[in-house]
Structure formats: C-alpha cells, structure tokens
Amino acid sequence: MATYFSDLCSFCWQKIGQCGYALCSVLAGIFLSLLLSGCDSGEVSVNAPVRPVKIVVVEEGQQGETMTQVGSITAEHETLLGFQLNGRITERSVEVGDEVAAGQVVAKLDPRDAQHQLQSAKADLASAESAEKVERSNFERIQKLASTGVVSQSQLEQATATMDAAVSRLRSAQAGFKSANDNLGFTRLVAPESGVVISVSGNPGQVVAAGQEVVRIASLSQRLAVFDVPEKIILSDIKQPQINVSLLADPSISASGRVRDLSPQADPTTRTYRVRVELDNPPESMALGATVIGSVTLANSHLIRLPATAITRKDDQPAVYVVAPETQTLVLKTIKVDRYSDDAIFVSAGLVPGDRVVVAGVSKLRPGQPVLDTGNKPEGAKP
Q1: Is the pLDDT higher at 65 or at 364?
Q2: Is the pLDDT of residue 67 over 70?
Q3: Over the Cα atoms of the chain, what is R_g?
Q4: Same domain for 225 and 118
C-alpha cells in the first residue's frame, strides 16, 4: 500500500510538480483515515482469537429479594426522671450502668423547706379542727334552744353558717396538710419500674428546677432492634415479615422478630424511616446499644441480580454481554436496571432465564467476539 502511494506521488510530481505532489498527499491521508476508521467500527474479525470469559446463567427467581440493614438494640422505652419540686440535690445513689428496682430511691433533695411547710400545714390543721369542734358544739346548742323557742330563727341560721365555714376551713387545712406531706415525699426521686441507668445529669449540690432531668432509666422489660430503612422497603408489600436480627460482632448470635412500629415521616436529613422490631426472646448478648444486622425477604419482585462488574453501555443505555448459544459469540443487550447496590445490579427487563451473561472484563470485549466459558471461578480470579 505504501509502495503504491509512493509510485502515485512520483508520477504526479513528474506531471504537475510540487503542487500536484501536495494534492496527492492529501488524498492519501484521507484514504488512510477512512481505512483506520473502518478498523474501529466495533466489529470483530472472523479470525479473532477465542477469549475465555466468566459468565453466570440467568435463572428465574423463586424467592423474594433479601435486604439487610444495620441497626442497634434499644429498650422498649426510656424514662426521664426528675423531681417535682425545685431544690438542691443532696444525694444521688446510682451511676450509669446500675440496675434499679421499682420503688428504689435514686436521688434526694434537701428536705428542710418541705419539712417546714409540713409543720405549718400541721398547725393549720390543728387550729381548723379546734375551731370546727367549737362551732359544731355551738350549733348543736342553739339548735336545741331553737326547738323550744328560746332563740330566734335568725340566730339558728347564723350558727349554721358559722359551722359550715368552720367545716370548710377544716377541709382546706386537711388538703394543705396532705399537699405538704406529699411535697416532703417528692424530695425523694423513686424509680417507677425496674431498669438500668443509661445517663445521669444531676449531681449532689446542684440546684434543679421541677421536672428537670436528673436520671434516665431504660426499661428492661423488652428490648427492640431499631433500624433506619430506605423508602424502598417501606413501599414494599410486606405483610408481617419475619425479620432475622444478628449481632454484627458475632452473626451466630441471632433472634427473630416482627415490626413493632415505624415512623410515619422520613427523617429530613437522611430521608430514611425509623423501624422498631420487637424481638422474640433475645439472647443476653444482645445488650442495649449493641450493633446488629437485620435481614428481611421482600415479596418476589422478579428482579435478576447480577454482579456490578457485568454492566456496560450501548448507545447511552445500560447493557450486558450475552453469549449466543449457537455461535458462542458475544451479543450486547440493553437492559433496564431497577436499582443498584454496592456490588450488584438488579435487572427488571432485557434478560430471560437461560441467558449467559459475562460478568468480568466487559470493558475489553466487543460484539461478535468468540468466547469460551471458563466456568465459575473464585472471587478475584481472572477469566
């Protein structure tokens, strides 16, 4: 080819000189460009060597897709304990990690103000009782005299009103005494149920307001697994799914459970939904705060799972290489991908059961190339 162009250029030089030689050089360049572009058309020569490839055979999925999510173990509920009075803490008898029983005192306030109020209320009660006794006796005496006509009806009515006022003052004093007595009891912070202390925020000597958190207790009655899951799972047609929960540190330790409740609104930052799973007899190793992995099988979605290494492109569309069974050559098929994961793609259209898909080295392959199936090799092996 080069000799031909050399002779052609020599002839042109002799006939039309330097200008003609330049014209011939341009024509030669155009011809070579067309030749090279034909070589890069994507077609493979019939004499191309057979290339060994690694393939997987597409099968009809009989089970639904299994999805996993990382979560943690939490208590069924947490209780924030605080005093019902303002005051200064004089004692806190628990620390983080301590188990407490129902009715156990976990902290105390300075009781002197409450004691003084109780003494005052007790004195008011004694005074009200004495006044009520005197007024009742006076009423009974006037009532007897009124029946004989010694006293007027107006005097009887006045005595009745005076006695009723004394009775009201007595009831008020009794209520004040009870309230003061309760306030003295409120200086002792008591655990409402058995649990474990997960945080403390009040220390002896600290002045706290009524309702301010002092101790937080996690219930031990029930442990839950909590997961933040994507919308994909929430929208799936799951009817009371069985969820397997295992420890991240030791997958052999596991428990089963069912969805207890889920958040009706997605988190504004992560756009995930919080799901709480009630565990059936969880082992002791699943302590509060332990990291766990939950797995659930979704309804059969007829998606085909392929390794992420199988995907390539055809005319800006996702595609895979399929081995034609008659010719043992490659065919580039466009596919529809439902979703992606870290190591796989889930195909919803474009493939049928029995298709043999190349799953390694697809960037070096071309349509029509003859291939040889090397079978399933260990991960990382070169086809």
Answers
A1: 364
A2: yes
A3: 44
A4: no
The rounded distance, in Å, linking the Cα atoms of 68 and 229 is: 9
pLDDT, residue 161, reads: 94
CB 51 within 8 A of CB 370: yes
Give the pairing of strands 51-53 and 344-349: unpaired
In a domain, 21, yes or no: yes
13-29 pLDDT, tens digit each: 354 444 444 444 444 44
The rounded distance, in Å, linking the Cα atoms of 193 and 186 is 17
- The DSSP-derived string for 329-354 is BEEEEE-EEEEE-SSEEEEEES--TT
- DSSP for 90-130, written as a single string: EEE---TT-EE-TT-EEEEE--HHHHHHHHHHHHHHHHHHH
Q: How far apart are CA 356 and CA 361, in angstroms?
A: 15
Q: Number of structural domains, the chain?
A: 5
If one counts every other C-beta atom within 10 angstroms of the C-beta of residue 318, the result is 17
Amino acid at 86: N
Residues 153 and 280 in one domain: no
Rounded distance, CA 99 to CA 195, Å?
Answer: 6
> Which token pair is 259?
């969805």
Structure tokens at 18: 């330097």
- In sequence order, which residues have a C-beta less than 8 Å from that of residue 210 and are 6 or more positions away? 82, 83, 84, 85, 86
Which H or E run includes 217? strand 215-219
Report yes or no: 73 and 253 within 8 Å, Cβ to Cβ. Answer: no
Say how far apart CA 108 and CA 190 lie, in whole Å.
9
* Element (DSSP H or E) covering residue 226: strand 223-229
Task: Find the domain containing 116 and state its range.
Answer: 112-185
22 and 85 assigned to the same domain: no
**199 and 146 in one domain?**
no
Q: Which residue carries 């991960």 as its tokens?
A: 379
CATH label of the domain that carries residue 241: 2.40.30.170
Please answer whether residues 364 and 53 qualify as being in contact, where contact means their C-beta atoms are separated by less than 8 angstroms: no
Same domain flag for 181 and 287: no
